[in-house]
Amino acid sequence: MATLNHLTLNGRFIGVESEYMYHFRGIPYGTVTQRFTNPVMKSTFDGEEVDCTRYGPRCPQIKLDIGYLLREPEGQIFHSETEDEFACLNLDVAIPKTKRTYKLPVFLWVHGGSQIVSYGNGASKVGDVRKLVQSSVEQGSPMIVVSVQYRLNIFHVGDNPERKNFGLKDLQCAVRWVRDHIYGFGGDPDNITLAGESAGAALVHALIVAGADVRRALLMSGTLWMSPPRPHPMASSAVIEPITLRLHSQGYTLQDAPAAELIRIQSEIPIVSVFLQEAHELADWATSTGKVSILMIGDCEFESAIFRNGIENLSAEQIDVAFSKAGRSAEELKKLYHINPTRPSSCRAGALDLLNDIFWAIPTSKLKAQVEDAGGLVFRYLFDQPNPWQASARAHHAVDLLHLFEGFTISDPGALAVAKELRRRLVLFVAGQPPWPTTRTCAFGSHGNVSEIGRDEVTTRRRVTEMERLAKMPAKDIAAARAGLVVGTLSLHN
């Protein structure tokens, strides 16, 4: 058992002690008393003793087998997670066991999950922070790790143009809470690294654009170019109206329907992803780098695996038609990505390659250039180590989480070597030290190797030539082709 008396929060926290850390779980950082209202920061516990031995509830969400995409072996034991739309604004604070007990660097983790489910949150093995904290202690650079929960799906989307983006508002509240109170846990409020994966990375990008007071960030497999802020009418037609229509037939509204009914309807529609809506604070999202001056950013070799089942259900002719929507760029685009309606396998591979490039690889390079142009330092990486249990699944979307947190038992020597080196370099980054030269790209994998490579080798691992050609095409042409491929093809069950 671990006990911490926190002065500014006026509370006595009871947590869990393990070999390398003290873990305080489920701490409320904000309160929400009504659906679709802004969070209010939790600033005091009024002298009470707070039980932090159990993980806090997550936002209500559709049921998802998180092991499906990750190829996790059957029989894995997961923590039981409760759900509550009002109590899901909570976070976990992991404090390393170390002689140095003040002004430690802070790693603030935002989980992904398409903004509809919790994928890689602190309570799941996917986001288990123990190995990460252990690595920081063993390296002599101990750091505090904070994992945040926030509102998702319809509870995040809201119900009208003035009430929206509640997941982002929750995270803004959490960042302010950490800045105000992390010192009482031994952390340095001026040395916070904001980090996230997939939708979590896109939300970190949004936090940066919206003015989060942080200087360092890690974006894994995600930016706002992956899921840009969209006008409210799009959110209304894609999410709000379909749910509302079904609720009205039962005599409910979005405001008074039971949470369980909202989840059931979203599962039936189904809604597999939601997005941020346009807002004043996000107006400059495509150009702003906020206060961040040090960035670590990268992508996996086969991010578009989350579109695989959907794309494989398309015929070669359907894919050819989608590419043909690219206007004057259509023929060049088909040639670049080997689209030939008489070759179905080539068409499907080409479609996945295009989605991989426009959603992940190109945005990663674009944000890298923006931060560098603003005078910042950028550490670019490639994650190419395949799935440790099924190598034929390649280095798919989210496989880096298996290596970063290593919450599951991995026996593959190559995967273990990459996992250890990934954490080592991340700890350096969070501690304010360069994890590798900014003039090089760090390649994690394949075959258990980690190396710092130059542009020539990067071109053998990513479609650099194709992406350079894409950059010269009209954005509307690329968007038209993309739209013909993504509708109904995204799923975390791939």
Automatic annotation (TrEMBL):
Signal sequence annotation: none
PROSITE patterns per UniProt: CARBOXYLESTERASE_B_1
UniProt keywords, alphabetically: Hydrolase
Domain Carboxylesterase type B: 10-412
Parts of the chain that traverse the membrane: none
Entry EC no(s): 3.1.1.-
Pfam family, one: COesterase
Source organism superkingdom: Eukaryota
InterPro entries: AB_hydrolase_fold, CarbesteraseB, Carboxylesterase_B_AS
Gene Ontology MF annotations: hydrolase activity
Annotated PANTHER family: CARBOXYLIC ESTER HYDROLASE
Family designation: Belongs to the type-B carboxylesterase/lipase family.
Protein name stated in the entry: Carboxylic ester hydrolase
Organism: Myriangium duriaei CBS 260.36
